[in-house]
Structure formats: C-alpha cells, structure tokens
Design brief:
The complex is a heterodimer of chains A (228) and B (184). By secondary structure, chain A is α+β, with helices and mostly antiparallel strands. Chain A has two domains: 108 residues, no CATH class; 106 residues, Immunoglobulin-like (Sandwich), CATH 2.60.40.200. Chain A contains five helices and eight strands; from the N terminus they run H-H-H-H-H-E-E-E-E-E-E-E-E. An eight-stranded antiparallel sheet of chain A has the order 5-4-7-8-1-2-3-6, with helices on one face. Chain A starts with 5 loop residues before the first helix and ends with a strand. About 14% of the residues of chain A have low confidence. With 184 residues, chain B is mainly α. Chain B has nine helices and no strands. In chain B, helix 2 packs across helix 4 and helix 6 packs across helix 9. About 5% of the residues of chain B have low confidence. The chains are: A alpha+beta (228), B mainly alpha (184).
C-alpha cells in the first residue's frame, strides 16, 4: 500500500533506499515507481543524498576473472533487442588502445605546431569509439576554448553537434554550445569545468541544441581533457 | 598519465555508451567502478565468493538496464551503487544472514563513533556528514547499519539489542530529520 502524504512517501522511499523493507513492500514500491512521480523523486533524493555513506565500505579488488565471467554472459545477450546505433555494433575493446595512439599522434602534431598559437593550457582529443583516428581537437588558451574537426565532420541531416563538458568527479554534463556548420566553435572564456581530468563530449541534437540542458541524442565523440 | 580519451571518461558518459550497446564502455566501467562496487557488496554479503556473484549479476543488470538511467535524476555512481546494494540484499535473503555473518567481528567497526568522519570527503558528503551528526545516536546507527551493512529492521534490533518497534521508529524519525536537514 503506497501512502499519499508527503511525509509518508518520503519515509517509505527512504526505507526502500536503505534496504530495510520486507520483500512484499519492496515489490510494491518498485511496481509503483513507474506511475508515481512523487515516489520516484523521493527515491532519487535518497539515492543521491545517502550515496556518500557507501564510501564506508572500503574498495576491494574483485576476483581476477570477474570481467571475463561477465563478458561471457553478455555475449549474444539481448543484442538483437537493442536499437541499432553508432555504439551498438560489436565493439572490440582494441579501439581504446587505437584511440590512445591516435590521441598521442594528434597531441604530438599539436605540440609541433604550438609555437605559432597562443600558449594553451589544456588539450582534448575527441574520437568516436569505433574509429581509429582522432576526430576533433579542443584547446584552451588566452583566447578561450576552441574546438575544431581534425577530419571533416558533418552532423546527420537536420541535426547539429553540441559540445558538453563533464567536470572531474561529477556526472552532470554541462552544455558548452552548438558547434557551427563549419565545425569550429570558439568560446571566449574557458568554462571552469574544463580542466585536467574533465571529459569533453559531442552529442547529436536537434537544431539549436538540446532542449533539456542535457544530451538527448547519442554521444558520438568523447575525449579526456589533459593539461599541457 | 594516460592520453586515452575514453580511459578518462566519467561513469555517466560510459553508462550512456553502455545504453547504446557498447561492450567496450561496459568493460571500462567495470575497470573504473568494480573495486568500489565489490567493496560495497562484500560489506553486505561478507563472503568473497558471493560478493563476486553479486558483482557479476549487477553488471549484467547494468548492461541490460543502462538505457533506463537518466542523468537528470542523479549521479551515475549512485545508480550503480543502488543496483549492487539491491543485488547484495537479494543474495543475503537467498543464502540467509546466519550463514553469511558467521564472523561476528566483521563490520562492527561501522557503528564506531568515527564512522561519520570516515565518509568520503566529496561535496555531497559534507552535507550528509553534518546532518548525520544532528541525529541521535540510535537513529544514526540504524541508518548506517541499514545502508552500509544491509541489515533489516530485525537484524538491526538484534545488533543493537533493542526492541523491533524502537528500531522501526528510529529509522523513520532518522529519515525525517535527515530529510529536513538535507533539504535546507
């Protein structure tokens, strides 16, 4: 039985997140989540607010074969149920190391050219997961942040690319702007979130950018921000 | 220093990619989060073999449900923690707490007086630490024993040698006090 008053809903949601509900009550909460926005918000509140408590459990190395057991079980698991998309093709893990090589090469190229541009403080090389080459180069300096395509890039017809920053230690992407059709976006002041350890990402959005302030389309390019 | 762009991606970005079917992103997420999540599972189920099972089930669920994660509702790390905690609670129920907690010394330190001070010094944690500090001792111990050790009402009653009714009321009053403190 899901209560109706604010206090009772918040208590029930708190007990659910704490994990003290008996199996029947827990199932009732889970069944009600889809339709009950107040309950859903209350659960999200407690999940977020109580999360730091989980740091009381010391991180521990799992068994060495942990990943291979998972990989074995997800191979062929429900893949046919997934909607096709850039990320959904079989993805060999080697792209990450390919990305490393590409990023290193792009970085070396950038450093070779560095004397002719104002001294940048950070650089990010963005690439798509299945591709070997670096696709975008973002740099910061006295003239702000600039991102430009390394190879020619076009958003899908009727869509635009939007640039996002995810600051180190946070999960919430911050919108930096829609990338113009010529592919070069300049932001006069480097956003505070763009520093070492941050991530830059480009998503595909409706014209004018995401209407929600968060990525709504697929994230098609990603790169870590490195100090120079 | 690694220049690999994906190696420095956040859990939220990786989870988005997992939602689009990237096994590579799931693997990276595992590399990034498995120590933390395994630690959380082990704290609740106590046995390494069962914690490993919990971690495996949790990652299967993450693989299947990543698309349902919405960053508007909270941090990716908290979402992952929720999945692991519920799988761990299921395992406790399946295997029975008495089988799992045969070493009574395990985990008792969590209700030591300095537990609150040991909460990670992240931004969100400051508020939680302050608000937990305002609870009375019994309310605080109930919240920590439930969230960190995965104890049920009756298990907390046993651990604190207190009546079940008192424990239920400490949990409820603790939650209400935490809510008003965390919202302010």
């Amino acid at each position: 039985m899901i209560p109706e008053t604010r206090d009772d809903i918040d208590i029930l949601a708190g007990e659910y997140v704490l994990g003290v509900l008996d199996p029947t009550a827990r199932q009732e909460v889970e069944a009600a989540l889809a339709d009950n926005a107040m309950l859903r918000d209350a659960v999200a509140f407690w999940e977020t607010k109580l999360h730091p408590l989980s740091s009381l459990a010391p991180p521990t190395e799992p068994p060495a074969d942990g990943w291979s057991a998972i990989a074995e079980r997800i191979d062929g698991d429900g893949r046919h149920n997934r909607s096709p998309g850039l990320w959904s093709r079989p993805t060999p893990w080697r792209w990450a190391t390919a990305g490393f090589a590409a990023a290193a090469a792009a970085l070396a190229l950038y450093l070779a050219l560095a004397p002719v541009v104002p001294a940048p403080r950070y650089v990010a090389v963005l690439h798509a997961p299945q591709r070997e080459q670096a696709d975008w180069l973002a740099t910061t300096g006295n003239d702000g942040l600039t991102i430009r395509p390394i190879s020619e890039q076009h958003a899908p017809a009727g869509r635009t690319f939007e640039l996002w920053a995810i600051a180190s230690g946070t999960a919430r992407p911050q919108p930096l702007g829609v990338i113009p059709a010529d592919g070069i976006l300049r932001i006069a002041t480097v956003p505070a979130s763009v520093r070492g350890g941050a991530t830059l990402a480009i998503s595909v959005e409706p014209p004018g950018g995401s209407p929600t302030g968060l990525p709504t389309g697929p994230v098609v390019f990603v790169g870590g921000v490195q100090p120079l | 220093m690694s220049a690999d762009p994906i190696a420095s991606s956040s859990a939220a970005v990786l989870l988005d990619a997992v939602g689009r079917g990237s096994q590579a992103a799931l693997r990276r997420l595992y590399e990034l989060e498995s120590r933390r999540l395994y630690g959380i599972a082990l704290r609740i189920v106590r046995r390494p073999a069962i914690a490993a099972e919990v971690l495996q089930e949790a990652f299967i669920q993450i693989w299947r449900n990543a698309r349902t994660f919405s960053p508007e509702r909270g941090a990716a790390e908290a979402w992952l923690t929720g999945i692991v905690r519920f799988r761990a609670l299921d395992a406790v129920r399946r295997h029975g707490r008495e089988v799992l907690s045969d070493d009574p010394a395990l985990g008792d330190d969590v209700v030591e007086a300095d537990a609150v001070e040991r909460i990670d010094a992240a931004a969100e944690a400051g508020a939680l630490r302050r608000c937990l500090g305002l609870l009375d001792e019994n309310q605080r111990r109930c919240v920590i024993l439930a969230f960190v050790d995965g104890l049920s009402h009756s298990e907390i009653a046993q651990r604190l040698a207190s009546p079940l009714g008192s424990v239920k009321s400490w949990v409820r009053r603790g939650l209400l006090a935490l809510r008003s403190c965390l919202q302010s």
